[in-house]
Amino acid sequence: MADLSTSYMGVALKNPIVVAASSISNYVDKVKKVEEIGAGALVIRSLFEEQIQYDQSTMQDFLERAANISPEIHSSFYPPMEDTGPREHLMWVEKTRRAVEMPIFASLNAVSPGAWVDYAKQLEETGIAGLEVNYYIVAADPNVPGSDLEKALIDIVAKVTDAVSIPVAVKLSPYYTSTPNVVKGLAEAGAKGVVMFNRFLQPDIDVDTESLVNDMRYSSSQEMKVPLRWVALLYGRTEMDLILNTGIHSGKDVVKAILAGAAAVQSASALLDNGLPYISTMLMELQAWMDEKDYKSLDEFRGKVSQKNVEDAFGFERAQYMQLLMAQQ
Ligand SMILES: Cc1cc2nc3c(=O)[nH]c(=O)nc-3n(C[C@H](O)[C@H](O)[C@H](O)COP(=O)(O)O)c2cc1C
Q: What is the atom index within ligand 1 of the atom nearest the CA of 224?
């Protein structure tokens, strides 16, 4: 049997399939099941600073309204305001981490620089194996150049990596102009891994109600091609571990990710679509492919089809429409 083990920012994983931050981590029983079925690790869904602010202000409003009706209600029946903050999330991260032996990673999405550092430290104290920085800003202001947004990201990452001693990965958006340059900045800021890429829900418009709708669709395997290209381009050009996320829907997709140069993959949609036992289907496919090719470890083929290692090095850089159009003439 081939050895599927890998290193994820220095953390040893028994295989490269990591459950991505998602609703799968909402219940400890589900996380235990993930471990039982054999995933390499799991990322708990993000601690969102905005959610905490929202919860606190909703609770504050409620307590103020309640106190106007009956002054005792404030102290007698409802929890102190601190308990509506990050504490609930932190307690639950620690509880989940204690319930399993596989490495558990936390994820953070904050707004203010101070909150990034405070929450990162508090998450580290829960005993997690590493932290994922889930940073995303929609560049909606025409007065802000992209370089300012990139600098803001890199500054936050430097502050977080200074504040904690666990490995930090950055979950990137696919929309940077120069992804390799941003990745270089993240490495200099002390990140140990880069998750390529986050998948953002795009709002739609309902033509009957003439309003916005947020419709939640899972990814397809086809969507893997964007991160596949970037992993292949970056392999061998950064010290950081490359973690391929978005569109991993089969064991063959995992093989492609490793061939491109990924240290590991993250998957959510395929597991939400097919159920958690699908982890073992993907693992069996990976194992069968390796056995057929007589590979004994992931290192034997990692990066074999990266830009650095293929003959057609420009194949990853140039769009191939011209060839396609000529073939169709
Ligand atoms: C229901 C659901 C919840 C998610 N929650 C988070 C989250 O809290 N933090 C985060 O960084 N990504 C979150 N994601 C994004 C996933 O981690 C992942 O990046 C994305 O789904 C792409 O991977 P996939 O193609 O395997 O689904 C969520 C995705 C889903 C489907």
A: 25
**Residue ranges lining ligand 1, Cβ < 6 Å:** 20-23, 45-46, 107, 134, 171, 198-199, 219, 245-248, 267-270, 272
Distance 198 CA to ligand 1 centre (A): 7
Residue 160 lies in a domain: yes
Q: Could you give the CA distance from residue 30 to residue 276 in angstroms, rounded to a whole number?
A: 8
Query: With 50 as the cut, is the pLDDT of residue 78 above it?
Result: no
Domain assignment present for 1: no
The answer to whether residue 233 is domain-embedded is yes
- Residue 206 pairs in a beta bridge with 211
Number of domains in the chain: 1
Here the CATH number for the domain that contains residue 284 is: 3.20.20.70
Residues 6+ apart with CB under 8 A from 232: 260, 261, 305, 306, 307, 316
Span from the CA of 216 to the centroid of ligand 1 (angstroms): 11
DSSP 8-class letter at 192? -
* Terminal alpha carbon distance of the chain: 48
Which tens digit of pLDDT belongs to each residue from 154-210? Answer: 999 999 999 999 999 999 999 999 999 999 999 999 999 999 999 988 889 999 999
Q: Which domain holds residue 186?
A: 6-328
Q: Which amino acid is at 125?
A: E
pLDDT of residue 113: 87
